[in-house]
Amino acid sequence: MKSNEGLMTRKIPSQAVKNALVPSKSEGSGMEIPFDSSNAIRKLKKSEWTEEKIYESTFGTSVYLKMIPSQAANEIYQAGVAEDKVPTPIIAKFTVGEIPMFSTYVDSEAPLYKINGDTKVTDISISWSNPENDFPMALTCVIKLDDGRTIQADKSKKSYKIGGIKRTDAFSFPQDDGTLVECPSVLEIAVLADGDYGMGLQGAKMLDDDSYEEIEKYYEAGNVVLYLEPEIELYASPDMYVGTALEDKYLLPPEVNYADLDSIGTNQAVKFNLVIENPTFSTDNYTGRNSRNPTTKLVETIIFPGDESLLAPSGYTENGNPADCGLELPEGRVLKSIKPAVESGVLISVALEFRDGTKCIFPDPELKTFSATDKESEQLLKGVVDMDSFVLFNGDIKAEYEKIKEDRRMRNLNRDYNILIEDENLTRVIAWYSGERGEIMNVIVPDPDKPSKSIQIKIPMEA
User: Fold this and answer.
1) Residue 394 Cα distances to 274, 375, 399, angstroms
2) Residue whose C-alpha is closest to residue 283's, from 184, 350, 382
3) What is the pLDDT of residues 290-304, one digit of tens each?
4) Which of 85, 360, 413, 422 is deepest in the core (most CB within 10 A)?
């Protein structure tokens, strides 16, 4: 992995440093590039987010910490014992179910070192900023280890304040010339240390009266103590849930690049059942009612191409403004293309492109909704797409559409006001009920001005 502009911009080291201050013993190799929250591939679901919500973790969930060496503290603490070594930034990876590791740079061959002995991460919980913003960031991250230690990173203005890692006290001392030397409070991590001299994240625990000879022996044994700035960088992103058991719970489906997809064939159509949960969002032409069983849910079968003759789906213009797609286009010259997105043989979404330049992508990736304006009544049709019925139809599209329209008419007929012989309705084109509760009677009568034509009369019924 070579240095690149992206890593340089994020100030993530990607090359080894000669004589870096690291332990003599490594534990394998390979440090991945940390997540970039400003360039996340996947997005958090918006409907379930609250300021108080804590996002759980599962096996395999990871976050990364970058810690910077304190130059002032290292000049003092490392004097005489590691002056030939170069303190460098470290990238530490914490993964649920694994031993935390760190390296001095990201690369497939970068040596890894244990940061806290053989302890393992048991849990990572995060509070995210509002996902309504394009790129949510972790406001608080709590990492729990199986030795009982808890590391907590809290967002500050430019970085993160860290807790749960040993922090030294600030002190000062005079030099021979009277100059006062000040040592700041820093994070202290003892790596590969054991006995009285080291406890990983608990620090080196060296006493003031420890002789330089003893400290030298500690370093000669291959151990090191890292002195780091108290504010760190946390790398967490919604992408951390990809590939884990929490992916479907927390994340929206992957975004689809419809420009790379082909339109359906001439003998194909997109067909689905729309469950109209709120009767207010049914229309005169799409009531969803079933007169034979009025207590059932309101459900309409929709098919494209076909229903674009009566429906203007909710979408957007080429400039990104909301639009009723194809609203003013003449029948038969409405749709330009229908591009289905299929994943593992399952239809997950569709892009309808219209000849007026508008586009509708449905269903909503989170709520699975579809909405459209009824061109005749100007009413809004809105419901939830039944994903089990969301399929690509193959066959005679015109015949299928006529079958759907016929079934739609039959479901709306009130059997008390129609003539049926052997269950076949003989007056289905004369009168039928519509409206939210069947409160409107529609009657077809001859047009007095054009005897060859008919007109539709809507008669409100008393409650």
Assistant:
1) 20, 27, 12
2) 382
3) 776 776 789 999 999
4) 360
